[in-house]
Amino acid sequence: MVDIATRVYNHRWKMDPIVRSLIDTDFYKLLMCQSVFRKRPDTTVTFSLINRSRSIRIADLIDEGELREQLDHIRTLSLSRGESTWLRGNMFYGKRQMFTPEFMEWFEALRLPPYHLETRDGQYELTFEGKWPEVMMWEIPALAVLMELRARAALGSMKKFELQVLYARAMTKLWEKVERLRPIGALRIADFGTRRRHSFLWQDWCVQAMREGLGDRFVGTSNCLIAKNRDLEAIGTNAHELPMVYAALAENDEALARAPYDVLSDWHEEHDGNLRIILPDTYGTKGFLENAPDWLAGWTGIRIDSGLPEEGAEIAIDWWTSRGEDPRQKMVIFSDGLDVDRIVSLHKRFSGRVRTSFGWGTLLTNDFRGLTPDDALAPFSLVCKAVAANGRPTVKLSDNPRKAMGPRDEIARYKRVFGVGEQEEVEVVV
Amino acid sequence: MVDIATRVYNHRWKMDPIVRSLIDTDFYKLLMCQSVFRKRPDTTVTFSLINRSRSIRIADLIDEGELREQLDHIRTLSLSRGESTWLRGNMFYGKRQMFTPEFMEWFEALRLPPYHLETRDGQYELTFEGKWPEVMMWEIPALAVLMELRARAALGSMKKFELQVLYARAMTKLWEKVERLRPIGALRIADFGTRRRHSFLWQDWCVQAMREGLGDRFVGTSNCLIAKNRDLEAIGTNAHELPMVYAALAENDEALARAPYDVLSDWHEEHDGNLRIILPDTYGTKGFLENAPDWLAGWTGIRIDSGLPEEGAEIAIDWWTSRGEDPRQKMVIFSDGLDVDRIVSLHKRFSGRVRTSFGWGTLLTNDFRGLTPDDALAPFSLVCKAVAANGRPTVKLSDNPRKAMGPRDEIARYKRVFGVGEQEEVEVVV
Fold first, then answer.
1. CB 3.0 to 4.6 Å from A357: which of A188, A365, B175, B234, for a disulfide?
2. Residue B13 touches partner A, C-beta closer than 8 Å
């Protein structure tokens, strides 16, 4: 039986919206948003799209009209009653009422602010400017829209069975990864792949397949909508945008040097347990840990998001030991450029020495490498970052100079203030 | 929107019937049936299931009750109006009204006769006895039911995503075969995989994928229902059962020696063009061709269905040449144990020397080898053959002694009458 109503309804759509919910975003965005809403609600920030893979000329691949339609659609979204109920009532990281009534009221009224879009040299210059808590909510949906529109462009010319075989191959590829991870007994792995996913439906498939294939070792997803729909844990803590904006707002070098710790001091007030995860690499992991106050060594763990992950984890272990902490009680979350080989080898090296955990992103939800003849679906390195706060540029150094960003003189100043010397370059795949 | 009616309707089913149409069968069965209906309608025959892969204990894998339900369901089937219209009105092999009004009237009234089922030593002894035109229609549905029930048994314990990945892998596997065949320009290939298919839906998928992937080089399917539903050519000519039954009915050695030619003489009256395809191996290809009357050399082609296919084709080419025919005008249809390697190599060797054509069976529609850990879905060699006619046993020698069947003394007699000496054994995969 054909459901005629469904068919007619589907044919009436003017477009196929990519992002259909304000909580189709990473959980840490909501945690950070609440923190910003409390502490720095009136900061004006600019977020900007940055395509690190310059060879991918996305403006040649994606129609500007379609991109505007998708972004305009996101601006029509507001929190649904069910989504609000879930955020208000669900237990996150073992805690009820993670989000305060004040924040929820603000969130229920939120509509995303305007965007600014121009094309230059085959790239889109997409920027968002306004109050920090509002603008920051653009990051994930903007990236997801660009990634999926680019995928749709590549899929447009494929025939019916060719398409079905493409997804069959992608499923097979993911399942082979699941089968390689399955023998690892004490694995803890989560989906961190919202921003650079192939598509929403594909991410949803990957999450469910991981759940079936790995059982409880798949601990959850960063995507709030999928966590809600699939009854999974929403996963995530905090990101570089907090220290980047705090640092940009610092009035002098002394305040700048303190800024990353101010961020975590604010966080310390708000969160405990598994939410106390240090992200140490914004201005160099080594210096950050050396100069860290003692209370930070008491935090639950650390997230390694740039540089050589083995090195970052060893630095953390040495630091905990030097501060009299037992690394075996600490959590190390790897979240940079992971694929199954690296997960297996990192788990092997650090299992037993620390509690390892993996935030698997792009190569979980967008590994279409090698599945089309011209590799038009291979993922690429697109980010959307805070580039200014109250009119002052932001800077990120990270543990990999290829991930550094900001004006050259400001980078030099930050390097001096944070005592960052020579850094090893690591290729940025995704 | 959930179509509630569909869901309720589906849940009401007592079973999921495997064969749902009397034309879910091979086209050559219908051609042969009409021929038998005309020439030998009152012959009493016995068809019997034979599992050449004795190590597969199908009675341990398939529940007898389920098997009976499926077979009972087939006995309730009759030709639908649309199916009858298609058979009466469609053009087959360039000819309108391939089926006479008399045959169609008989077919419209047909219900399949009773079956006899027993279990012995882990195998089902499934036999059908009665009038030849009726009993012969059991062969293909009986095989399809057993193959699919065995697949269902293996699939029963698989989880949701595991199942989806299984089919993803099978699709990928088939598509890789399509991609290997695609560069071959002058290919002619058809689906002959009904009897040992994984399932009806899977055969239907394979046929459509082949059509999309190979275009006109995929010339059609032996399955009448799929040919009708997908607007493809129905493909097939004649099979061993004709000479086997004719031979069993022969009153003496002289009549026995003549029997295979009598079959083709009757066929010659009824069909021309691409339906005039010799199947020479029932009692040894070499002797059959040596003793063949000259009018047979004028036929369009030959089907190689046992033994080493290269050898069979070379014998045919030599024979045509010796009879003053131009082999380049002749068609050689390979239909035994084909997979893509063999298709590629046979095409390479014989292209230009004859018009090659491929009837691809089990490894098109049931290549699940290696897709489950215990290989519980690998195809096996199940056949359903005429074993007696008017109370006398049938014999098949073929060009491969492993495919021979019949009582030992009768095999010896046939070998003597048809002058069959030493034969090379070829492993029977499927």
1. A188
2. no
Return residues 212-251 of A near B (CB < 8 Å): 212-213
Q: B167 and A168: CB-CB below 8 Å? A: yes
Q: How would residue B239 be classed by pLDDT, with cut points 50, 70 and 90?
A: very high
Q: Which SS3 state, helix, strand or coil, does residue B131 take?
A: strand
Q: Most B CBs within 10 Å: which of A164, A207, A371, as the mutation test of the B interface?
A: A164
Checking ipTM against 0.95, whether it exceeds it is no
**By CA distance, what is B178's nearest residue in A?**
A162
Interchain CB contact of A8 with B (< 8 Å): no
Taking the CA atoms of residue B311, residue B316, residue B319 and residue B324 in that order, the dihedral angle to the nearest 10 degrees is -140
- Other CB atoms within 10 A of residue A334 CB: 25
Give per-residue pLDDT as tens, A319-357.
Answer: 999 999 999 999 999 999 999 999 999 999 999 999 999
**pLDDT of the residue at A320:** 98
The 10s digit of each residue's pLDDT in A350-405 is 999 999 999 999 999 999 999 998 899 999 999 999 999 999 999 999 999 998 99
- Which residue in B1, B165, B213 is closest to A9 by CB distance? B1
- Sketch the domain layout of chain B as residue ranges: 161-365
The DSSP code for B16 is: -
- Say which of A159, A162, A172 has its CB closest to residue B168: A172
CATH superfamily, with its number, for domain A14-156+386-394? nicotinate phosphoribosyltransferase (3.20.140.10)
Span B310-367, pLDDT tens digits:
999 999 999 999 999 999 999 999 999 999 999 999 999 999 999 999 999 999 999 9
CATH of A160-365, one of 3.20.140.10, 3.10.20.90, 1.10.1040.10, 1.10.10.10: 3.20.140.10
- The residue written with tokens 């439906």 in the block is A201
For residue A1, the chain B residues in CB contact (below 8 A) are: 3, 5-6, 9
Q: Domain B161-365 class? A: alpha beta
pLDDT in tens, B186-234: 999 999 999 999 999 999 999 999 999 999 999 999 999 999 999 999 9
Q: Is residue A179 less than 8 Å (CB to CB) from chain B?
A: no
Alpha carbon separation from B156 to B168, B197, B274, B338 (Å, rounded): 17, 18, 43, 29
Q: What is the CA radius of gyration of chain B?
A: 21
Q: From the candidates A6, A8, A167, A172, which should be mutated to test the interface with B, based on the most B CB atoms within 10 A?
A: A172
